[in-house]
Design a protein that fits this description.
single chain, alpha+beta, HIT family, subunit A, 5-stranded antiparallel β-sheet, 2 helices, globular, binds adenosine monophosphate, binds zinc ion
């Protein structure tokens, strides 16, 4: 049985504030937002981390970024700017092991001091 929370969001088994869906990806609001706009974009296919990207599924990464760009426009943060983050494994603080892209914006985000 698949216990992955983002797989369950992708199938509708767990509710979310869904902002976009197509055959490949789903986008929804982060439940614990770190910025006024904080959206998660996931592939419907279960891929645990960015390390699982290969030639066969790399189109999903392009699609996730395209959806991020479109949602940034829809949320009116394109001109002001936004940040895209993919955490990969424990040193990056990845908590949910279903690949996801964070789209953050709506305020000045400052430098990425957590990397220092
Ligand atoms: P990461 O640390 O990159 O794995 O990020 C996981 C993100 O998923 C965090 O920002 C959480 O707030 C978010 N999250 C966890 N569960 C849910 C949920 N059920 N709906 C929306 N966002 C979630
Ligand atoms: Zn999953």
């Amino acid at each position: 049985m698949n216990e992955c929370i983002f797989c369950k969001i992708a199938t509708g088994e767990i509710p979310c504030d869904k902002l976009y869906e197509d055959d490949d990806v789903v986008a929804f609001s982060d439940i614990n937002p770190a910025a006024p706009v904080h959206i998660l974009i996931i592939p419907k296919k279960h891929l645990p981390t960015l390390n699982d990207i290969d030639d066969k599924n790399a189109h999903l990464i392009a699609k996730m970024h395209l959806v991020a760009k479109e949602l940034a426009h829809a949320k009116k943060i394109s001109a002001g700017g936004y940040r895209i983050i993919i955490n990969c494994n424990s040193d990056a603080g990845q908590e949910v092991f279903h690949l996801h892209l964070h789209l953050l914006g709506g305020k000045p985000l400052g430098p990425m001091i957590a990397c220092r």
